Protein backbone atom coordinates (compact mmCIF):
# COMPACT_ATOMS: atom_id res chain seq x y z
CA UNK A 1 0.00 0.00 0.00
CA UNK A 2 2.87 2.25 0.85
CA UNK A 3 4.22 1.78 -2.67
CA UNK A 4 0.86 2.80 -4.24
CA UNK A 5 0.77 5.91 -2.09
CA UNK A 6 4.28 6.86 -3.08
CA UNK A 7 3.59 6.35 -6.78
CA UNK A 8 -0.04 7.61 -6.83
CA UNK A 9 0.62 10.43 -9.26
CA UNK A 10 2.40 8.22 -11.74
CA UNK A 11 -0.33 5.58 -11.46
CA UNK A 12 -3.02 8.21 -12.16
CA UNK A 13 -1.13 9.43 -15.20
CA UNK A 14 -0.81 5.88 -16.54
CA UNK A 15 -4.52 5.27 -15.98
CA UNK A 16 -5.46 8.51 -17.82
CA UNK A 17 -3.16 7.62 -20.72
CA UNK A 18 -4.70 4.17 -20.96
CA UNK A 19 -8.15 5.75 -20.84
CA UNK A 20 -7.25 8.11 -23.68
CA UNK A 21 -5.92 5.20 -25.75
CA UNK A 22 -9.17 3.35 -25.21
CA UNK A 23 -11.15 6.46 -26.23
CA UNK A 24 -9.02 6.93 -29.31
CA UNK A 25 -9.37 3.32 -30.27
CA UNK A 26 -13.07 3.47 -29.80
CA UNK A 27 -13.68 6.74 -31.69
CA UNK A 28 -11.38 5.90 -34.56
CA UNK A 29 -13.90 3.36 -35.85
CA UNK A 30 -17.23 4.32 -37.46
CA UNK A 31 -20.03 4.47 -34.90
CA UNK A 32 -23.65 5.44 -34.98
CA UNK A 33 -23.56 7.12 -31.53
CA UNK A 34 -21.05 8.92 -29.39
CA UNK A 35 -20.23 8.10 -25.82
CA UNK A 36 -21.70 10.09 -22.95
CA UNK A 37 -18.41 11.87 -22.17
CA UNK A 38 -18.00 12.74 -25.82
CA UNK A 39 -21.53 14.11 -25.94
CA UNK A 40 -20.90 16.28 -22.92
CA UNK A 41 -17.66 17.57 -24.39
CA UNK A 42 -19.26 18.29 -27.76
CA UNK A 43 -22.26 20.06 -26.21
CA UNK A 44 -19.87 22.19 -24.19
CA UNK A 45 -17.51 23.08 -27.02
CA UNK A 46 -19.95 23.37 -29.96
CA UNK A 47 -21.01 27.00 -29.24
CA UNK A 48 -17.37 27.98 -29.04
CA UNK A 49 -16.64 26.10 -32.26
CA UNK A 50 -19.57 27.90 -33.94
CA UNK A 51 -18.30 31.30 -32.90
CA UNK A 52 -14.78 30.44 -34.05
CA UNK A 53 -16.10 29.15 -37.39
CA UNK A 54 -18.24 32.24 -38.07
CA UNK A 55 -15.39 34.53 -37.05
CA UNK A 56 -12.99 32.76 -39.38
CA UNK A 57 -15.52 33.01 -42.23
CA UNK A 58 -16.04 36.73 -41.58
CA UNK A 59 -12.28 37.33 -41.56
CA UNK A 60 -11.89 35.31 -44.76
CA UNK A 61 -14.71 37.20 -46.53
CA UNK A 62 -13.35 40.53 -45.36
CA UNK A 63 -9.90 39.62 -46.61
CA UNK A 64 -11.31 38.50 -49.97
CA UNK A 65 -13.29 41.75 -50.25
CA UNK A 66 -10.24 43.89 -49.50
CA UNK A 67 -8.15 41.93 -51.99
CA UNK A 68 -10.87 42.18 -54.68
CA UNK A 69 -11.73 45.84 -54.01
CA UNK A 70 -9.52 47.35 -56.76
CA UNK A 71 -10.89 44.83 -59.25
CA UNK A 72 -14.49 45.52 -58.20
CA UNK A 73 -13.96 49.27 -58.50
CA UNK A 74 -12.49 48.91 -61.99
CA UNK A 75 -15.30 46.55 -62.97
CA UNK A 76 -17.93 48.97 -61.67
CA UNK A 77 -16.39 51.82 -63.65
CA UNK A 78 -16.37 49.66 -66.77
CA UNK A 79 -20.04 48.72 -66.28
CA UNK A 80 -21.00 52.37 -65.79
CA UNK A 81 -19.15 53.29 -68.97
CA UNK A 82 -20.89 50.51 -70.92
CA UNK A 83 -24.27 51.59 -69.50
CA UNK A 84 -23.71 55.20 -70.54
CA UNK A 85 -22.66 54.10 -74.02
CA UNK A 86 -25.74 51.90 -74.31
CA UNK A 87 -28.00 54.78 -73.22
CA UNK A 88 -26.40 57.09 -75.78
CA UNK A 89 -26.83 54.49 -78.52
CA UNK A 90 -30.48 53.99 -77.52
CA UNK A 91 -31.12 57.74 -77.54
CA UNK A 92 -29.48 58.06 -80.96
CA UNK A 93 -31.53 55.13 -82.23
CA UNK A 94 -34.76 56.70 -81.00
CA UNK A 95 -33.79 60.01 -82.58
CA UNK A 96 -32.95 58.37 -85.91
CA UNK A 97 -36.19 56.41 -85.82
CA UNK A 98 -38.19 59.57 -85.19
CA UNK A 99 -36.35 61.47 -87.92
CA UNK A 100 -36.93 58.61 -90.33
CA UNK A 101 -40.66 58.63 -89.58
CA UNK A 102 -40.82 62.40 -90.10
CA UNK A 103 -38.95 62.14 -93.40
CA UNK A 104 -41.27 59.38 -94.61
CA UNK A 105 -44.30 61.53 -93.75
CA UNK A 106 -42.85 64.46 -95.66
CA UNK A 107 -42.00 62.22 -98.61
CA UNK A 108 -45.55 60.87 -98.71
CA UNK A 109 -46.89 64.43 -98.52
CA UNK A 110 -44.76 65.59 -101.44
CA UNK A 111 -45.96 62.65 -103.53
CA UNK A 112 -49.60 63.37 -102.70
CA UNK A 113 -49.13 67.08 -103.38
CA UNK A 114 -46.93 66.99 -106.44
CA UNK A 115 -48.35 70.31 -107.73
CA UNK A 116 -45.63 72.02 -105.69
CA UNK A 117 -41.86 71.86 -105.63
CA UNK A 118 -40.25 71.64 -102.21
CA UNK A 119 -37.07 72.37 -100.29
CA UNK A 120 -36.52 70.25 -97.19
CA UNK A 121 -34.90 71.80 -94.13
CA UNK A 122 -34.25 71.23 -90.43
CA UNK A 123 -34.83 73.57 -87.51
CA UNK A 124 -31.46 74.41 -85.95
CA UNK A 125 -32.41 76.99 -83.30
CA UNK A 126 -35.15 79.21 -81.88
CA UNK A 127 -35.07 82.93 -81.16
CA UNK A 128 -33.79 83.52 -77.60
CA UNK A 129 -36.29 86.32 -77.04
CA UNK A 130 -39.34 85.24 -79.04
CA UNK A 131 -39.03 81.48 -78.59
CA UNK A 132 -40.80 79.33 -81.16
CA UNK A 133 -42.44 82.38 -82.69
CA UNK A 134 -39.26 82.70 -84.74
CA UNK A 135 -37.11 79.68 -85.66
CA UNK A 136 -33.97 79.25 -87.75
CA UNK A 137 -33.65 76.58 -90.44
CA UNK A 138 -30.50 75.22 -92.08
CA UNK A 139 -31.29 76.29 -95.65
CA UNK A 140 -30.81 79.71 -97.24
CA UNK A 141 -30.38 81.50 -100.54
CA UNK A 142 -27.68 79.02 -101.59
CA UNK A 143 -30.38 76.33 -101.66
CA UNK A 144 -32.96 78.55 -103.37
CA UNK A 145 -34.85 79.78 -100.30
CA UNK A 146 -36.68 83.09 -100.78
CA UNK A 147 -38.52 85.45 -98.48
CA UNK A 148 -42.23 84.69 -97.85
CA UNK A 149 -41.97 81.04 -98.90
CA UNK A 150 -44.63 78.92 -97.15
CA UNK A 151 -43.21 76.54 -94.54
CA UNK A 152 -45.20 73.40 -93.74
CA UNK A 153 -45.24 69.92 -92.24
CA UNK A 154 -47.29 67.01 -93.53
CA UNK A 155 -49.80 67.81 -90.75
CA UNK A 156 -50.20 71.47 -91.66
CA UNK A 157 -48.94 75.05 -91.71
CA UNK A 158 -45.80 76.16 -89.83
CA UNK A 159 -45.27 79.73 -91.05
CA UNK A 160 -43.40 81.73 -93.66
CA UNK A 161 -39.81 82.70 -94.38
CA UNK A 162 -39.15 86.15 -92.94
CA UNK A 163 -35.41 86.58 -93.49
CA UNK A 164 -32.89 84.81 -95.72
CA UNK A 165 -29.10 84.54 -95.53
CA UNK A 166 -26.67 82.39 -97.54
CA UNK A 167 -26.92 79.21 -95.46
CA UNK A 168 -29.82 79.77 -93.05
CA UNK A 169 -33.24 81.41 -92.90
CA UNK A 170 -35.58 82.72 -90.22
CA UNK A 171 -39.17 81.46 -90.18
CA UNK A 172 -42.00 83.44 -88.58
CA UNK A 173 -44.38 80.79 -87.27
CA UNK A 174 -48.16 81.16 -87.18
CA UNK A 175 -48.26 81.35 -83.38
CA UNK A 176 -46.52 84.75 -83.35
CA UNK A 177 -48.87 87.65 -82.54
CA UNK A 178 -47.61 89.57 -85.61
CA UNK A 179 -48.49 86.70 -87.95
CA UNK A 180 -51.71 87.56 -89.83
CA UNK A 181 -53.27 85.70 -92.75
CA UNK A 182 -56.59 84.58 -94.21
CA UNK A 183 -58.18 81.17 -93.74
CA UNK A 184 -61.38 79.47 -94.70
CA UNK A 185 -63.66 76.94 -93.02
CA UNK A 186 -63.64 73.73 -95.04
CA UNK A 187 -67.27 72.99 -94.09
CA UNK A 188 -69.03 76.36 -94.24
CA UNK A 189 -66.66 78.09 -96.72
CA UNK A 190 -66.66 81.21 -94.51
CA UNK A 191 -63.52 83.33 -94.53
CA UNK A 192 -61.55 83.92 -91.34
CA UNK A 193 -58.86 86.46 -90.47
CA UNK A 194 -56.28 84.62 -88.38
CA UNK A 195 -53.53 85.85 -86.09
CA UNK A 196 -51.29 84.39 -83.41
CA UNK A 197 -51.99 84.92 -79.69
CA UNK A 198 -49.72 86.10 -76.93
CA UNK A 199 -49.89 82.73 -75.15
CA UNK A 200 -48.45 81.02 -78.30
CA UNK A 201 -50.65 77.96 -77.82
CA UNK A 202 -53.73 78.89 -79.85
CA UNK A 203 -54.63 81.04 -82.84
CA UNK A 204 -57.33 83.69 -82.89
CA UNK A 205 -59.74 84.12 -85.77
CA UNK A 206 -62.33 86.71 -86.74
CA UNK A 207 -65.33 85.89 -88.92
CA UNK A 208 -68.50 87.57 -90.15
CA UNK A 209 -71.30 87.51 -87.54
CA UNK A 210 -73.46 85.59 -90.03
CA UNK A 211 -70.79 82.94 -90.62
CA UNK A 212 -71.99 79.39 -90.11
CA UNK A 213 -68.73 78.18 -88.66
CA UNK A 214 -69.12 75.51 -85.97
CA UNK A 215 -66.93 74.15 -83.25
CA UNK A 216 -64.72 71.37 -84.66
CA UNK A 217 -64.58 72.80 -88.19
CA UNK A 218 -61.26 72.42 -90.00
CA UNK A 219 -59.62 75.65 -91.15
CA UNK A 220 -57.25 75.88 -94.14
CA UNK A 221 -55.38 78.73 -95.80
CA UNK A 222 -57.44 80.68 -98.30
CA UNK A 223 -54.57 81.62 -100.58
CA UNK A 224 -55.80 85.25 -100.62
CA UNK A 225 -53.33 88.15 -100.39
CA UNK A 226 -50.55 85.78 -101.40
CA UNK A 227 -49.25 85.22 -97.87
CA UNK A 228 -49.55 81.43 -97.93
CA UNK A 229 -50.29 78.83 -100.58
CA UNK A 230 -53.92 77.69 -100.77
CA UNK A 231 -55.53 74.80 -98.85
CA UNK A 232 -52.79 74.23 -96.27
CA UNK A 233 -54.31 72.92 -93.05
CA UNK A 234 -54.20 75.51 -90.25
CA UNK A 235 -56.10 73.85 -87.42
CA UNK A 236 -59.46 73.15 -85.80
CA UNK A 237 -62.02 75.54 -84.30
CA UNK A 238 -62.12 75.00 -80.53
CA UNK A 239 -64.33 77.88 -79.38
CA UNK A 240 -66.71 80.48 -80.86
CA UNK A 241 -67.91 83.62 -79.10
CA UNK A 242 -69.16 87.12 -79.79
CA UNK A 243 -68.00 89.87 -77.45
CA UNK A 244 -70.40 92.68 -76.60
CA UNK A 245 -69.92 95.66 -78.88
CA UNK A 246 -68.18 93.65 -81.61
CA UNK A 247 -69.70 92.73 -84.94
CA UNK A 248 -67.43 89.74 -85.54
CA UNK A 249 -67.38 86.21 -84.24
CA UNK A 250 -64.19 85.50 -82.36
CA UNK A 251 -62.74 82.04 -82.90
CA UNK A 252 -60.15 80.11 -80.95
CA UNK A 253 -58.30 77.82 -83.33
CA UNK A 254 -56.03 74.98 -82.24
CA UNK A 255 -53.05 74.63 -84.64
CA UNK A 256 -52.79 71.30 -86.42
CA UNK A 257 -49.14 70.99 -85.42
CA UNK A 258 -47.20 71.47 -82.20
CA UNK A 259 -44.79 74.25 -83.15
CA UNK A 260 -42.53 73.49 -80.18
CA UNK A 261 -41.86 69.98 -81.52
CA UNK A 262 -41.04 70.75 -85.14
CA UNK A 263 -37.77 69.44 -86.53
CA UNK A 264 -37.99 68.64 -90.24
CA UNK A 265 -39.96 71.05 -92.46
CA UNK A 266 -40.78 71.66 -96.11
CA UNK A 267 -40.62 74.97 -97.96
CA UNK A 268 -42.93 75.41 -100.94
CA UNK A 269 -41.09 76.94 -103.88
CA UNK A 270 -42.68 79.84 -105.66
From TrEMBL:
Signal peptide: none annotated. Residues 123-269 form the Rod shape-determining protein MreC beta-barrel core domain. Belongs to the MreC family. Keywords: Cell shape, Coiled coil. This is Cell shape-determining protein MreC. NCBIfam families: mreC. GO terms for biological process: regulation of cell shape. It comes from Alkalibaculum bacchi.
Amino acid sequence: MKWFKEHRVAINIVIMVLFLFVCIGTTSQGRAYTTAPEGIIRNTTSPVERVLYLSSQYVKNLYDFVVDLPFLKARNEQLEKELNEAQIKLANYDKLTQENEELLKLLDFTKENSQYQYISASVVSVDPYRGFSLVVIDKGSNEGVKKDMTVILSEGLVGRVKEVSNGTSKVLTIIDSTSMFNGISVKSKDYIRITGKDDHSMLEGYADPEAKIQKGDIVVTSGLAGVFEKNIVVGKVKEIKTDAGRLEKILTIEPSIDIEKIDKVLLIKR
